[in-house]
Design goal:
422 residues; alpha/beta; Carbamate kinase; four-stranded antiparallel beta sheet; globular; binds adenosine-5'-diphosphate; binds aspartic acid; binds magnesium ion
């Protein structure tokens, strides 16, 4: 008998019929003798619907009091789907109970809309499992020190599931979703994308942080820190598929460095449209300018990603960096009001219409020229690279967003990731 955590995403929980299917699948696992903890997301579209209502009432609010209420609101989506799943399980003849984050409790810090899990008390869940129940724990939510409801950031149910699995030392955490595993890139954008039967933890971490939303990055961090056996698989297989076959399907996240020498140099391509570029033009080129610009941005709690500074000409330089697209206007205003006058710089220009495309692979460690292949492919497509950033196992470029799909497809092909190349 094993302790297994299942997580079902929004599409997998998208209708009563799908919830019934989830219940049948979970009941199959429980009847095979496993202790089951299930973490559902809100039904698909529900979180967007709720947040949209808030936006209608207060289009430009961004303070902490507002964010607190957003969490109160958004957390109801998971509360509803969890209760529905418990009801569906009971209808299948399976004893089941659901708990909201605060009932477990899952404790988080107080950063509303992007809270971090601090601890999970598993006593109640264990007692229910021992009594033969399937336990449903709401995804995406927790409670802070003083009892406020918090949420973990979009896609956060993945993190809830992996954190519960880590806290309970589960034998495996299975993330059921609307694709049958982790692909070389988003299969909805590149139909030639291939499913990976395994992906290393490091690669998964880079892919998630570079924009592949198949797993929320914090869930991958948790899996790495606590060595949670983690698999991504489809919830759309027939529920009564053979359990052993199901348990071996999808993509396994591995922690041991594969000693496959023939490992692909590039394992995957990630992309996102979540960032905006800010350029400060005509900055006097002297010590301290990066600090003056980025120090002010950091003090406003705005995260910066890619940074470049041009070579100086006539004692002046240009300085560019990217921030989350939601922070674009705020950053431009902050620089115009507070930094430009003190710096004596000429101008601040913002460009929200960019995208970031990244190639990821642990094979890049031991191969030279991978980045230059990337640049060649983009130049052959006539795509201008605005910024570049690299780490040991990834290279990212910032491009005009209109080239995103073209760039991803061309790179996918050039690095031999298309299905027919397998
Ligand atoms: P869920 O609601 O189950 O959490 P998500 O929409 O958050 O599902 O994540 C699954 C989606 O992630 C897929 O439908 C797919 O479009 C997208 N995706 C992006 N990159 C990848 C990738 N490399 N492999 C698989 N899916 C990916
Ligand atoms: N329901 C939340 C969202 O849509 C959390 C999740 O689905 O993981 O972001
Ligand atoms: Mg998700």
């Amino acid at each position: 008998m094993a302790l297994i955590v299942h997580k079902y995403g929004g599409t997998s929980m998208g209708s009563t019929e799908r919830i019934r299917n989830v219940a049948k699948r979970v009941a199959k696992w429980a009847r095979a003798g496993h202790q089951m903890v299930v973490v559902p997301s809100a039904m698909s579209g529900e979180t967007n619907r709720l947040l949209g209502l808030a936006k209608e009432l207060a289009p430009s609010k961004a303070d902490s009091a507002y964010h607190r209420e957003l969490d109160m609101l958004a957390a109801t989506g998971e509360q509803a789907s969890s209760a529905l799943l418990a009801i569906a399980l009971q209808a299948e003849g399976m004893a089941s109970v659901s708990y909201a984050g605060w009932q477990v409790p899952i404790r988080t810090d107080s950063s509303y809309t992007k809270a971090r899990i601090e601890s999970i008390d598993d006593a109640k869940v264990r007692a229910d499992l021992a009594a033969g129940k399937v336990v449903i724990v709401t995804g995406f939510q927790g409670m802070d020190e003083v009892g406020n409801i918090t949420t973990l950031g979009r896609g956060g149910s993945d993190t809830s599931a992996v954190a519960v699995a880590a806290a309970m030392k589960a034998d495996e955490c299975l993330i059921y979703t609307d694709v049958d595993g982790v692909y070389t890139t988003d299969p909805r954008v590149v139909p030639e994308a291939r499913r990976l039967s395994t992906v290393s933890f490091e690669e998964m971490l880079e892919m998630a942080s570079m924009g592949s939303k198949v797993l929320q990055i914090r869930s991958v961090e948790f899996a790495g820190k606590y060595r949670v056996p983690l698999r991504v698989l489809s919830s759309f297989t027939p529920w009564d598929i053979d359990l052993t076959e199901e348990a071996a399907s999808g993509t396994l996240i591995t922690f041991e460095e594969d000693d496959k020498m023939e490992q692909a140099i590039v394992s995957g391509i990630a992309f996102n449209r979540d960032e905006a570029k800010i350029s400060v033009l005509g900055v006097p080129d002297k010590p301290g300018i990066a600090y003056q610009i980025l120090g002010a941005v950091a003090a406003a709690n705005i995260e910066v990603d890619v940074i470049i500074q041009n070579v100086s000409k006539d004692g002046k330089t240009d300085f560019s960096f990217t921030v989350h697209r939601n922070d674009h206007t705020r950053t431009v205003e902050l620089l115009k009001d507070k930094v430009l006058p003190a710096l004596g710089a000429a101008e601040v220009v913002g460009d929200p219409k960019i995208c970031k495309v990244s190639i990821v692979g642990i094979g890049m460690r031991s191969h030279v020229g991978v980045a230059s292949t990337m640049f060649r492919v983009l130049s052959e497509e006539g795509i201008n690279i605005q910024m570049i950033s690299t780490s040991e196992i990834k290279t990212s470029v910032v491009l005009d967003e209109k080239y995103m799909e073209l760039a991803v497809r061309a790179l996918h092909k050039a690095f031999g990731l298309d299905q027919q190349a397998a």
